[in-house]
Amino acid sequence: MNVFLQSLAAILATAAVSGALACATPASVCAEAGDDGFALIAAGRPAAVVTDPGADSAVRWVADRFAADLERVSGHAAQRVRDADRAPRPAVVIGVPGQSPLVDALVAAGKLEVGDLEGQWEAFRVAVVDDPWPGVSRALVVAGSDRRGAVFGTFDLSEQLGVSPWYWWADVPTQRQSDVRVIPGSRSDRPRVRYRGFFINDEDPAFSGWAKNRFGGVNADLYEQVFELLLRLKGNYLWPAMWAPKAFHLDDPRNTALADAMGVVMGTSHHEPMTRAQSEWHRSPDDPATGGPWNYLTNADNLRAFWRGGIERMMSKGDGAAYESLVTIGMRGDGDEPMAEDTAIGLLETIVADQRRIIEVVTGRPASQTPQVWALYKEVQDYYDRGMTVPDDVTLLFADDNWGQIRRLPEKNLDRPGGFGVYYHFDYVGGPRNYKWLNTVQIGNVWQQMDLAYQHGARNVWIVNVGDIKPMEFPLDFFLRMAWNPEAMTHQALAAFPETWAKQGFGAAAAAPIGELITRYSRYAARRKPELVNEQAFPIGDVSADALHRGEFGEHVENWRTLVDDTEQVKSTLGAQHHDAYFQLVEFPILALANLYELYWATAWNRRLASSHDPRANFFLHTVERTFARDAELTARYHALNGGKWDGMMNQVHMNYVIWNEPTRQTMPSVTRVGADTPTHRQDAAVLFAPKQTETPRVGVIPAAEYARAVDGRGLAWTAIPYLGRSQAAMVALPQSEPPTTAADGVRLEYSLLTASPGDLQVRLQLSPTLDTTDSGGIRIGVSLDDGPVQTVLSHLVPTAGPARTPEQEAWSRAVIDNRHVVAAQFAQVPPGDHTLKIWRLDDNVALERIEWGEP
Q1: Cα–Cα distance between 579 and 450 in angstroms, integer?
Q2: Are 173 and 442 in contact (CB under 8 A)?
Q3: Cβ pair 582, 506 in contact under 8 A
Q4: pLDDT, tens digit, for every residue of 438-464?
């Protein structure tokens, strides 16, 4: 076992004892019987939940949800008390110091310390308080620095109780417990990223169709479930569904007030300024501000009036108060398109100045007192790079390339009041191809990129495009947990995350195998987005008169078949109560994507064989027909879960793409029948294949984590980042965001190579397709052999929204399709024998996944 695998095993072994640690950590939930601590549930009876009569609506709401959670765990209703004078014993008290007489009395009596909460954003303290009132021996207090702090502290307890944030969104069951206590003492926590949330986007046909089936539309009944999920994941910020004709503030008059009452900060997407949904511009005939083109050069008066209406609506809460919002400013073209480039920079600066004047006039306060964000998305970032001026109090929201690689990060003015943020993608509509169907995210890639962002100072906003929410449960959970505290999400915590997450949903016994299934699925799915998989995606092998010789495509299919078998084996160990959640979170994505690979692999062989009139083509024809039908069967099974609860959620078209955009309907790939069927055409596939007989050039392969020696220096340490790339891990020099180094600094990895014969040698480095976030002309990596000179190779990928026009843009398009980028170094007349290959850290943001070497 190599060094990385040994360390990973140790990490997971440590994670396995986390339950025991909970019974030793102050103010943590312990499911073991004992006399010390606060009895949250005793002999099946839960404690009462108490709030002050005048508590904020979000505090009252979370207290109601916590009482419901106690009932889920105990099987008995928890008393919900809203009168402090009638507080029973034992009781859980939830409040905000300065707004809660109950909490303030405990503070005044010296029984509760909350000084560290003062002035904090969304912080909380959970404390077991002795002798809180006469005749009461103990109480449990959740004190928030503000209303959301109280919400997050309460839901933190719920999760420790065993109530998954996904109890509704993925039907994760809650295990019954009759005795639960909270360990004596207190603990506190707070977020490190200010605004943390997700964007429901590209939501037609799946999310929208499901919402219509389930709730009658995208309305407040639906959003109550969305808001609860967001808050249970300790997020606070939402960009709502916005594909035409949706408009959050108009679609249901309850939406705006509900979000504010629950404590959710509302925003609008990167191209919807001043709290206005884009579709409002097109569909509000009664609004005199709407009309004419979405063009500030020719229609500025109408646009200003339209935007003013958005800010007036934000301020309509009453008594001069605003609905809590993070206001998007700036402007893109109608339909999320660029504006005219020759006028864009100066025009955008004028637009933002005018928008800020509107904010000042309507709110009656300086614009700097209303939180604002300007998304530097696509071409807007190019304008920023060319000197576009942005007010210092506005958060600059940098973006990834829509494929998980951040384009730009701050290098200066890190102390600007508005700070910086990142808009990230798990889902995308655009080139080189849409990807909307299944989760294809490796959390290792999320960790590497968002850690990079955090280290660069992007700490004010983290928001991720999650498409339909489902089936992005796993990476969304990871993203928001990391956003809460990137400092706690170390690479060790990353390594333990799949098992930890699986334990929460399926229990300790199944956690390790389910975590491993999710990890393997993520690695296989990340090879290529499903929408990019077709009959030409991978080499299929060779044909001879008596046998077919399996190629790379067949190897991938075998990987998927093994994973499917393992998935069904693990399912057989689970109780029936877990089957719905298992199907949604584990089984369906594995079975569905495995089936897609089978379908296109068979399509490729059918076409290859049919082109030479080989009757073996018919076997694959039947496989295509069977797998196409299987795809529909899996979707129908998903939609039938839990009495049809998720009907419509998996209706995303995902086959037979021919351009970047999705087809209008699901169709089977075209296949060809050769002659008439015979029984041999339906034989088992294993009979059709034989080991490959042809010789291939000798190629050496080393996973990056299997190094012979790692040399650290300049405060940098080589670290294996799990779940990143096609192997077990990728190598990254931590901490990220450090300045460039030189070969003289000696920061390098060494690998042992053996060459059998003399000759020229090419070394190919397989990298994660990261981008130059500093706009320095590419990312440099050093390569040397033995004691020879260091060559500098350059990884330079340039995203494009349209057709690739430069070699760097073409390289980016190829890299995101393959989810890897390869750079090469050449060595002339290398003698046979043992050699040491050295990979030198020169620039930041390099994730080395694998090394190959062989003939040029």
Answers
A1: 33
A2: no
A3: yes
A4: 999 999 999 999 999 999 999 999 999
Q: How many residues does the chain have?
A: 856
DSSP3 helix / strand / coil % (the chain, rounded to 5): 40, 20, 40
Phi, psi (deg, nearest 5) at residue 422? -140, 135
Instruction: Say which residues have a Cβ less than 8 Å from residue 189's Cβ, sequence separation at least 6.
Output: 123, 124, 152, 153, 156, 485
Cα separation, 793 vs 784, whole angstroms: 11
Q: Where are the chain's structural domains? A: 22-189, 195-371+457-489, 512-690, 699-854
Calculate the CA dihedral of residues 218, 220, 221, 227 and round it to 10 degrees: 100
CATH architecture of 699-854: Sandwich (2.60)
Tokens at residue 571, please? 């399912």
Best CATH choice for the domain 512-690 from the list 3.10.20.90, 3.30.70.260, 1.20.58.2150, 3.40.640.10: 1.20.58.2150
Q: Tell me the residue ranges of DSSP E strands in 218-371.
A: 237-239, 265-266, 327-329
Complete DSSP assignment for 78-127: PPEE--GGG--SSEEEEE-TTT-HHHHHHHHTTS---GGGTT-SS-EEEE
How far apart are the C-alpha atoms of 697 and 710, rounded to whole Å? 30
What is the dihedral angle through the alpha carbons of 446, 449, 454, 457, rounded to the nearest 10 degrees?
-150
Tokens 């030189």 label which residue? Answer: 742
CA 680 – CA 688 distance, rounded (Å):
10
**CATH (one of 3.20.20.520, 1.10.3720.10, 2.30.260.10, 3.40.1110.10) for 195-371+457-489:** 3.20.20.520
Q: Which residue has the tokens 């904010």?
A: 359
Sheet with 29-30: strands ordered across: 29-30, 180-182, 38-42, 45-46
DSSP β-ladder status, 717-722 and 729-734: antiparallel
* Cβ pair 663, 657 in contact under 8 A: yes
Q: What is the pTM of this model?
A: 0.96
Tens-place pLDDT, residues 371-386: 999 999 988 898 899 8
In contact, 759 and 829? CB cutoff 8 Å: yes
The residue type at 145: S
Q: In which residue are the tokens 């037979």 written?
A: 656
Q: What is the pLDDT of residues 752-762, one digit of tens each?
A: 999 999 999 99
Structure confidence by residue, pLDDT tens digits, 269-288: 999 999 999 999 987 656 66
Closest CA to 269 of 413, 126, 427, 434: 427
Contacts of 687 by beta carbon, 8 Å cutoff, 6+ apart:
none
Asked whether 782 and 839 are in contact (CB, 8 A), the reply is yes
CA-closest candidate to residue 734, choices 494, 497, 515: 494
Q: 480 φ, ψ to 5°?
A: -75, -30
What letter represents residue 100's amino acid?
S
Cis peptide, bond prior to residue 205, ω within 30 of zero = yes
